[in-house]
Amino acid sequence: MPGAFTITTATNTVTLGPDRQGEAAFVVTNVSGRPIQGRALLTWQPPATDRAAWASVQGDTERVFPIAGTQQYAVKFTLPSTAPEGQHILRLDMQDVTSPDDVVQGQSVTLQVAAPPPKKPFPWWVVIVAAVVLLGGIGAFVLLRPKPATVPVVAGQSLVKAQELIAAAGLRVAEPLKAENSDTLAQGLVIRSEPAEGTTQARGTAVTLVASSGPATFPMPNVVGSAASAAVIALQQAGITKFALDRRYSETVPAEQVIDTTPGAGQLVTKAGEVRVAVSLGPCRRGTLACRRVISPVLISPNLRFRNDMLRVPDQP
User: Membrane-crossing residues (predicted)?
Assistant: First the structure.
């Protein structure tokens, strides 16, 4: 029974260079008289199982062949350095995928493998020269490098004084300056330096000064009409940790309810600003003189929680 394929190659010998790589092309034609799906097989002569990685088909090994259709297979050779020199023979065979036992043997290609080029002796003189240059460079660096400078303490100083201290230390002030809010330092005073004070830097290194832009401001929360306990919590959560509760008698506002605030709702305040909250004691039923008496405010501190007895007038039964 004639084979389903014809397999030819343009060259029967491939000479591999020093890199031991090369390529061969095979032309495969379907002569079965029917469409067929073929698979390319690589076979070493004599058969060897340790050479599978020496050659590979580029692209799909399995392809569809129409009647009288032709496909070209490129085989790439990559032999390891351990491959013996001399001749190695490879054949491209074709298999009918639907009839695996139907295998057509193709033409063989002989690989000519030359001996690898001799290794050049390692140029030890290059290592010696490099070592001398390196040691000389290290010595010059140690002898000629400038002495380091220490970042001075500038926190709390004015910008002018801080700049003088930086320059006197052999450093320079970076531009632009940075600004941050501070609840403890007045506007224009230095909060810190970057790099930090006490760190060692190369002379001439730029040091950034972070100056205070004063305390951060935010709108006064609207607590008018709220219960005194809720107002205290709202103000503390907003960041106002120190403020005064002014206790007042009121004929119109129920007891323990906020009458008004100073500053008013929406006005800008700071965490350390003076805030007063007027809280109703309800109507006064103790006589004209007692009702007109000034009642001392209750001072709220950062960790103080509101208690209802804070709204009791000291001499009230």
Answer: 122-144
Per-residue pLDDT band at 317 (split at 50, 70, 90): very low
Q: What is the pLDDT of residues 256-307, one digit of tens each?
A: 899 999 999 999 998 888 899 999 988 988 777 778 777 888 888 877 777 7
In a domain, 177, yes or no: yes
Contact 75, 56 (CB under 8 A): yes
pTM, rounded to two decimals: 0.43
Q: Are 197 and 151 in contact (CB under 8 A)?
A: yes
Quote the strand ranges of 158-292, DSSP E: 172-173, 178-180, 190-194, 200-201, 206-212, 217-219, 243-248, 258-262, 268-270, 276-280
Count of structural domains within the chain: 3
**Bridge partners (DSSP) listed for residue 145:** none
Any domain includes 295: yes
If one counts every other C-beta atom within 10 angstroms of the C-beta of residue 104, the result is: 20
